[in-house]
Design goal:
With about 260 residues, the chain is an alpha/beta fold. The protein has 6 helices and 12 strands.
């Protein structure tokens, strides 16, 4: 093995080093990170993930985050939280519901000497944070949620400040179609257009994961972000959207019942 190549946990002759042993103990890892010269997930099915994705949109986030606050929702092992701290963010808070991921994140932050707050929390509980953040990262979370639009509304209402960095798995058409403001009840053909905003529902599993519930096409993803009150300002990578917080939606969002809403029964 080259001196410059990161080690894999268990590669060391004569047994694991303390770092390798801890990485192995905390595994399996979804984020491939290099900690103390050791890779956490060198055989990741997506390759060097999420570093390879980060390189595609890192330029779309300010390089200097001095004095800024960041909320990383669904932080997993803390890859993006660490990147925000490396850019000088004054305060970074990472939340995740999975204690195993949080243990990984705390270990990675400690090993890098990074002061990051990690909390066990669902995205549906973000209002309890009681503050807005300059930058909110919402990476790879939406399709794991039973109630994705509610989550976007809660982000808008309670934590989103200047910038939302959003990523979701997308499937179906990558085209974005022009959707009319309204359609007569008799109109049906528009729903046959593959580029019409649509969410694919997964009843059981996708890629072996029972938490994959909804997968939007690109039109649906953009429409959902707009519906929640976000303005898309950049699309630097196929699955990544950079947004700012726009005017409040007229419909009031899914957080509160839409004014004047009527059921057809």
């Amino acid at each position: 093995m080259s001196r410059s190549a990161p080690a894999r946990a268990g590669d060391a002759a004569g047994g694991d080093s303390p770092v390798e042993a801890r990485i192995r103990e905390l595994g399996p890892w979804f984020h491939n990170m290099t900690i103390g010269g050791v890779q956490t997930a060198p055989d990741h099915f997506l390759g060097d993930y999420p570093s390879l994705k980060w390189r595609q949109f890192a330029h779309a986030i300010p390089a200097d985050l001095t004095g800024r606050t960041v909320l990383d929702i669904g932080c997993n092992a803390g890859f993006y939280s660490l990147e925000m701290k490396r850019r000088g963010a004054e305060r970074v808070v990472g939340i995740d519901w999975d204690q195993a991921y949080l243990a990984q994140a705390r270990f990675a932050a400690d090993a890098n000497g990074a002061e990051i707050e990690f909390r066990q929390m669902s995205v549906y509980d973000v209002a309890t944070l009681g503050e807005q953040f300059d930058i909110v990262l919402f990476m790879g979370v939406l399709y794991h949620l039973r109630h994705p639009l509610l989550a976007l509304d809660l982000l808008y209402e309670h934590v989103a400040g200047d910038l939302l960095v959003f990523q979701s798995m997308l499937r179906g058409s990558a085209e974005v179609t022009e959707v009319a403001p309204d359609y007569p009840f008799a109109e049906q053909a528009v729903f046959d257009d593959p580029a019409f905003p649509r969410m694919h529902f997964i009843e059981r599993k996708y890629s072996g994961d029972p938490t994959n519930w909804w997968v939007p096409n690109r039109s649906a993803m953009e429409a959902m972000l707009r519906s929640a009150g976000f303005v898309i300002t950049d699309h630097p990578e196929r699955e990544v959207f950079i947004c700012r917080r726009g005017p409040a939606p007229d419909h009031g969002g899914a957080v509160y019942p839409a004014a004047g809403g009527r059921s057809r029964g």
